[in-house]
Amino acid sequence: MCGIVGYTGKAQALSPVLEGLRRLEYRGYDSAGIALVVTPGAPLWIEKRAGKLANLEETLGANKPDAHSGIGHTRWATHGGPTDTNAHPHLDNEGKLALIHNGIIENYVELRAELEKRGHVFKSETDTESVVHLLSDARKAHNGDLAAAMREVCSQLRGSFTLLAIHADEPGRIVGARRNSPLVVGVGQGENFLASDVSAFIAYTKHALELGQDEVVDITSSSIVVTDLAGTIITPREYEISWDASAAERGGFPHFMLKEIYEQPKSIADTLIGRTAGLDPEITAGINLEGISKVVIIACGTAYHAGLVGKYAIEKWANIAVDVELASEYRYREPAVDGTTLVIPISQSGETMDTLMAMRYARSHGARVFAVCNTNGSTIPRESDAVLYTHAGPEIAVASTKAFTAQLIAMYLIGLHLGRVRGVVSAELSAEIGQELAELPSKVEQILETVEPLRALTRQFRDSTSMLFLGRNVGYPTALEGALKLKELAYMHAEGFAGGELKHGPIALIDQGTPVIAIMPTSRSPLHEKMASNVMEVKARGAVVIAIGDADLDSAAHNIRIPTSHEFLQPVLAVVPLQVIAYEMAIARGNDVDQPRNLAKSVTVE
Ligand code: F6R
């Protein structure tokens, strides 16, 4: 939520700042703005516009201010509507200090009242503007030292923030800080970067530094100094980014989402490499997986659905009770957790606030934390005892696709690993599932090669007001995921139900012509027949049934075939047509596929 970028170096700053904003726009697209130090000592150059980055670029036109340092922001609005005035950066009353912010300042009302009393004039309705005025006073008190001022100000703030500030009297210097929101440093040659994530500067450098909680970073083109809020110097962890700029580009596809759907054979294979026979000791070194009494998976949205699938596999293979919790519910209800609980937070971004807070709660009560995450250097893995990274590569489209299938793979790998640690997975089962997992990339490839007719079929339902998804066993969370994708992308009412629950209420929703997507359990499963009966029940009430399965169902109006697999692995295959349906429906209804309305990737506020 909100993308932040800063550049200082020999190049014209506008170009890397704009480039960074383009790559971070998935984090929010309510407004965009840039501040540059064009004339040292004079008020800053600033331009900001409501709406997508394209609006700002149009305003800029051929205007290329000569500056070598600057900051840029793309916003997902929280406090104050998406207007030009509320857009970041925000300025102090002299127009010489600019600040951008991701997060929420919880005590902004009292700060604002106090600052207004001191004569500061506010222009916006944002929580952020209080911080720029506070910083302005603190900088004066610290004889023009922006980093010292930032440390003091951060100590007075409540809430979550990534902050970046520049001052016209200190050209070439950018000061940043973070608490519960992401900020990484890109280390270049004669230039340095600050950003919400590495995609912003991947075209310039692959060398990055991780920043910890409550740390302040002070950069120029040739120096990087990190301190805690007391001013003590910290040595940040360095890492190399393993993917390149092309991974964060569309590569000939009309949308990132379609590219990411088609990348799944690779992202699944990459997540599996070297792991089917057991997790690398390097991964599990920091965590004791013996003597665990229960597993709690915590996640949000699509990652939560991956956790629900994980429950079936982990309970069965590792013979241990698994609860799957929505992080936003878990964190506020004081759940029972102790040192024998294994908590598995699942997060693509590694920054989702609810997941992070739920995990911190569990940790503070002694739980062991084994994260599943796609983003190196992010907060959730940094605060976990161990982490299984999914290797999906950067996911840019707001709707999650390849990260979901990679999270499913992580669930299977953890289920098998725990089963081995607990001595309940036989060598035969291990070999059988290992083989089935290895076959998934080519099976997904097969689906993608035959998916074209599904696009025309989807368009037939363009004007439907609602679409229902049915599944049983692991098909149930798959149905939930199919419905979530359709809601996000098509802005259409969609719900997922467990087939066995239909008669307990939801069947009343079925009317003449209601499209129902049935995820058929694999033909090897005893549940196949049960689900076939559910299909008959909805068909008898007028539903048009589209069945997804490994065998044609005579009672369905349309059949979408997927290869046969082990029953627990089927969601990896069945979700692919569901992703394509949501994608195609968004296009058919004229919606923005990669940046659906009201959403942002990486939900770093509550
Ligand atoms: C849906 C989607 C969201 C995320 C959720 C968790 O397509 O992308 O539901 O899955 O916000 O995000 P992460 O995995 O980054 O914690």
Structure report:
Strands 3-2-4-1-10-9-11-14 form an eight-stranded antiparallel sheet, with helices on one face. Strands 5-6-7-8-12-13 form a six-stranded antiparallel sheet, with helices on one face. A five-stranded parallel sheet has the order 16-15-17-18-19, with helices on both faces. The chain is of the alpha/beta class. It has three domains: 3-241, Glutamine Phosphoribosylpyrophosphate, subunit 1, domain 1 (4-Layer Sandwich); 253-445, Rossmann fold, CATH 3.40.50; 452-588, 3-Layer(aba) Sandwich (Rossmann fold), CATH 3.40.50.10490. Strand 15, helix 9 (301-318) and strand 16 (322-326) form a beta-alpha-beta unit. The structure holds fructose -6-phosphate (F6R). Fructose -6-phosphate is lined by residues 300-303, 347-349, 352, 355, 399-400, 484, 488, 602-603. Fructose -6-phosphate (F6R) binds next to helix 9 and helix 16.
How would you describe this structure in keywords?
606 residues, alpha/beta, Glutamine Phosphoribosylpyrophosphate, subunit 1, domain 1, Rossmann fold, 3 domains, 18 helices, 35% helix, 22% strand, binds fructose -6-phosphate
| CATH topology type of the largest domain | Glutamine Phosphoribosylpyrophosphate, subunit 1, domain 1
**CATH architecture descriptor text of the largest domain:** 4-Layer Sandwich
* Ligand types: fructose -6-phosphate
Computed CA radius of gyration, to the nearest angstrom: 25 Å
Question: What would you give as the CATH superfamily of the largest domain?
Answer: Aminohydrolase, N-terminal nucleophile (Ntn) domain
Content-based structural category? alpha/beta
The biggest sheet amounts to: 8 strands, antiparallel
Q: Give a count of the beta strands, DSSP E runs of length 2 or more.
A: 24
CATH class call of the largest domain: Alpha Beta
Give the low-confidence spans: none
The averaged pLDDT comes out at 95
Q: Give the overall form.
A: globular
Helix content: 25-40%
What's the total helix number? 18
How much strand? 15-25%
- Work out the count of structural domains: 3
Major sheet: order of its strands? 3-2-4-1-10-9-11-14
How far apart the termini lie comes to: 10 Å
